[in-house]
Each structure stands twice: as C-alpha cells, then as structure tokens.
Amino acid sequence: MTRLYVKAPLAILANNAGGGLVVEDGRIAELVPSGGAPAAPVDETFDASNHVVLPGLINTHHHFYQTLTRAHPDAIDKELFPWLKSLYPIWARLDPESFRLSVRLALTELLMSGCTTAADHHYLFPDGLDDAIDIEAEEAQALGMRVMLTRGSMDLSEKDGGLPPDLVVQDKETILADAERLIGRYHDGSEGAMTQIALAPCSPFSVTKALMTESAALAEKHDCRLHTHLGETEDENAYCRELFGCRPVEYLEEVGWLGPRTWLAHGIHFTTEECTKLGRHKVGVCHCPAFNAVLASGFCPINELKAAGAPVGLGVDGSASNDASNLMEQVRHAVMIGRLNYRSASAVTARDAFQLATEGSAACLGRSDIGRIAVGRQADFALFTLDELRFSGAHDPIAALVLCGAHSADRVMVKGEWRVRDGQPIGMDIARLRFEHGEAAKRFT
C-alpha cells in the first residue's frame, strides 16, 4: 500500500492539518500539523503549497438527464409548474444513447468543480429507457465517482389528477420491482461504498400515496434511503391541501417518511413549526440555491432547519433549472442568496457554505465516512489554486474560493486516486464529449 503525503498546502479546510495529510489505502491515515512531518515514512509526496485543499464536495440533488435541455426556449423565464409542463413532453424523447451522454457530461462537470460524490434523482422512464439507473452506475464507475443513485418514479399522471403526462409515468408494480432489482445489484451499504441506491418517488403532485408508503416499507426492508421533492413552491402547498387535505410535511408524516432515512430536495416553504418537526425527526434537506433563484421559488430556511437539528446539504439540481452542474458555484450561491434572505452579511459565511457542501451533504446521504478531512475518513479531496486574476489580492484563501468565484478544481482525488489532474478529468476527451453531447441535445429542440 502506497503512502502519499499531500504536503504543506496553501490552506486546508481541516483542524490541525496545516502541514498536510497522508493517504493510505484510500483513507486518510494521518494529519500533519503546521511545521511537522509524517510520523512514518511515505512513498510519494505531492507538493500542495500552491493549493487550497477541501474535502471532496458532495452534491445531494441533481437530474443528470436535464443537461440536454439547458436554457430551452420553451421553458426559460417560467416558474416550476409551467416549466415542468413545457418540458415533460420534450423529456419523453429520452433514449439510451442521449441519456448516457447526459449522465457522462453531468458527472464530468461535477467532478471538475471539485465534487467527489453525487446523488441523482432520475424519475423519467419512457419506453426504451428501462435501464437508466444501470447506465448511471456504469458511467460513474468509469469516471471513478461516488454516487447515490435514486430510483425515482411517477405513477400519478394528468388523467389521475397529477402533473406529468401519461407517457412518462409507470405503474406502481413496475416501479417497486425495478427498485428491488437495483438494490440487489448495486446498493453497497459498507464503509467507502462507491455506489448506493435510494428510493425516490418524485413529488406529491406526481405520485400516489400508495407508492410513497410502499417505497418507505421497501427502504426499511433493505436499509436504504428515501428522497423526494418537498416544500418547493406555494403551488405544491395548494395542491397538497386540495388533494390530500394537508400541508406537505403532514403528508410526509402520513405516508411514513418522517424519519432519519429521508432527505428532501428544496424545503423552501416550511413554517417554523415544520422546521422544528423535521429537525426532531432528523429529516435532511438539500438546499438548491441556483434553482430556487432561477425559478423564483423562494428561500430555503437553512439556518432554522440546522438550528432544529435537521441535516442540511447542498445540490446543483437539474441542469435545465440551474443551468450548470458545478457544485463550487453552488457554494457561492448559497452564501449570496443566504445573506439576501436573512439580510445579514454574517448569516451565511464561506465556511458555513462549505459545511453544507461537505459534512451537511454527507449527513443527508447517511454517510459518516466522507465529507470531512479527518483520520479514518475516505481520501476524497478537491484542490484549488488561486492563480487566476480573480484571486489576486485575496488574503483568506478559503474565503477567496467563494467570494472571488472559484469554479474549477486543479486536482480531485476520490478514494485515494487522482481523478482530475491539471483541471482535466483523467481518461476523458472533453472536446469529444462536448461535440457528442451537443449533437444529442439537438434532438430535444
């Protein structure tokens, strides 16, 4: 087993590690204090004196397929419900080839932004795309990224009072059978896992109560996690009151989802009492600041949720509502939008935002082996330089990444292996990917 010494970083987001860290067997073996040296011999040294070292960033909500419909003229400048109704018929054209390219591009973008673990919420299974989650698992393995692949689902179409058209929904039996198959094939609950599966009925306006309750039971049976959109818009609140006679958080409790197995996307329209309830039950929330701004959905009460005890993470959301797959940019958005929401320059600091994207996100995914630079944790890191003009004159290197607008990592390590060097993903032809993905996207005009 090779011992790698990441030596004397310019700055590092960790305690008592000013001298760097040692990686062995895919884990952090040692933290080196400032002015110190490794306690045991090393086989290789990487000089990090020009780098800011962060824990690998963790994306807790995405829709990889949406990279094919960025800035789409049928959807721009619309709020959530009309945005979805415009795009559902277009997304129904998804096929395995274009889907694979959308996944490859999204994962590559994320990795280049310093993201080492990504959760994707895929809920569209038009005819011919039954193996969508299998495709995602293959692409993540090829790129060397950790993934939480959520088997999304919709079984409530327009004819039944739901939002999506009939051609993009499946029946409950098909959904649950495929979920069991995927858990059996891919879900790894062990420390250091590279691929995990979660169950993810899409939203209150696209799934039945029966699918929600049976998904919860299946997750309990197989000890995997649950994910859904909730508290996203006032339209959703009105929909839940009309269809279920309650608000979204009450609905969540009725269907057996109010517990630490669950993490939610968005969580914008929660009352103070609902934040308290979610915190008491340790329900996680993924904050998606760019999505919330682009679709004018509102502000996530991140500080109230954290104060109540709810894990709060960070996500880029779909690349048709962001419209990028860059998690470092989301860290900056979290600071700017958080300060605007709370009308306070100290309400959300750069380090607060990094906590969302690392430890907070890890907690949402139920993982204690990633998200922090500490002995025994997985060796997942993102290394950034401050060489660009935007950073000249910056005095706090960690804050500078956020306030000066870093967007791409110079090096990225996952499980002790370099996956990005000199800003380029290892083994990936970026020019070819851009061309092939761009050609595929033309089918969705």
Automatic annotation (TrEMBL):
One MF term in the entry's GO annotations: metal ion binding
Q: Which UniProt keywords apply?
A: Hydrolase, Metal-binding, Zinc
| EC numbers for this chain | 3.5.99.3
| Highest rank taxon of the organism | Bacteria
Q: Which InterPro entries match?
A: Amidohydro-rel, Metal-dep_hydrolase_composite, Metal_Hydrolase, MTA/SAH_deaminase
Any coiled-coil regions, as ranges: none
KW Repressor (keyword) present: no
One short Pfam name that applies is Amidohydro_1
Q: What is this protein called?
A: Hydroxydechloroatrazine ethylaminohydrolase
Family per similarity comment: Belongs to the metallo-dependent hydrolases superfamily. ATZ/TRZ family.
The record's section on NCBIfam families has: PRK08203.1
Q: In this protein, which residues make up the domain named Amidohydrolase-related?
A: 52-418
